[in-house]
Design a protein that fits this description.
The protein is of the alpha+beta class and about 260 residues long. The protein has a five-stranded antiparallel β-sheet, sandwiched between helices. Strands 1, 2, 4 and 5 form a four-stranded antiparallel β-sheet that branches. A three-stranded antiparallel β-sheet has the order 3-12-11, with no helix packed on it. Helix 3 packs antiparallel against helix 4. It starts with 6 loop residues before the first helix and ends in a 13-residue tail after the last strand.
Length: about 260
């Protein structure tokens, strides 16, 4: 069952979303060569708690980190540990914050230090897929329209769309109905209605979309070792179109995310 939120509940989730967004800004600033993923995790937890939030991921089904930090061929669910970042690493960071009983969830992928054109193009394709999906988040559309938008954009760019990992509803719980694949035909699935809130999260690869699990029971990798990217926003369906609850502030001199 898809749980629809009141306007007041969506506003509360937006407050959580602002903490998520500022945490992601912090992660991108501090992710430099020589910094460990555990260092980033500690900074993120301090930041989240200093803003009145709780890291949603920490302790969730036993996950030990406050963030998920997934470098290079790791797609998602990376436990932030002793891995030391190097110049050129492609890093996906996923942050969830619970504030006043409600969750917001967002992820970005960026390059540490000097980027390669291939890495930048992969990340751009992931972001463009997310933005296309959000444009479908209008009352009266179908959930399949959201899924199809990701696939259409990403595959046209020559990248793989992971089949076995999906987005989800979000609210009082981090994972609510429905599951939101990043592929499939349009015009199918539940009809979108105001008050629905989704964590939309394309997960894409530079090669095959096949995945393999890591030894720790959490991390998921590309099977062929190709680079991966993960972009995510928490989005509310409203009577006036989509409302992004985790929108980051534009960088000075640059466009928004």
């Amino acid at each position: 069952m898809i749980i629809r939120k009141t306007d007041a509940e969506v506003d509360t989730m937006a407050r959580a979303g602002r903490v998520v967004a500022s945490t992601l800004d912090l992660m991108e600033r501090e992710a430099k060569a020589g910094v460990t993923l555990a260092d980033l995790d500690s900074l993120a937890e301090q930041h989240i708690r200093s803003h009145g939030g709780v890291p949603s991921f920490k302790g969730y089904r036993g996950f030990p980190g406050s963030i998920c930090a997934s470098p290079n061929a790791m797609i998602v669910h990376g436990i932030p540990g002793p891995y030391r970042l190097a110049d050129g690493d492609v890093l996906s960071v996923d942050v969830g914050v619970t504030l006043d009983g409600y969750v917001a969830d967002s992820a970005i992928t960026f390059v540490v230090g000097t980027p390669t054109p291939d890495a930048l193009d992969l990340i751009d394709a992931c972001q463009q897929g997310l933005e296309a999906a959000i444009r479908q988040c209008h009352a009266g559309n179908r959930l399949g329209d959201v899924s199809h938008a990701v696939q259409e954009v990403v595959e046209a760019r020559g990248y793989g769309v992971v089949r076995s990992l999906v987005g989800h509803g979000v609210g009082r719980a981090m994972h609510e109905d429905p599951q939101i694949p990043n592929y499939g035909p349009p015009g199918r699935g539940p009809k979108l209605a105001p008050g629905m809130v989704f964590a939309i999260e394309p997960m894409i690869t530079a090669g095959s979309y096949d995945v393999q699990p890591g030894d720790d029971g959490w991390a998921v990798y590309t099977r062929d070792g190709s680079l991966a990217a993960h972009c995510e926003h928490t989005v509310a369906i409203t009577g006036n179109g989509p409302r992004i609850l985790t929108l980051r502030q534009p960088k000075r001199g640059a466009g928004g995310r």
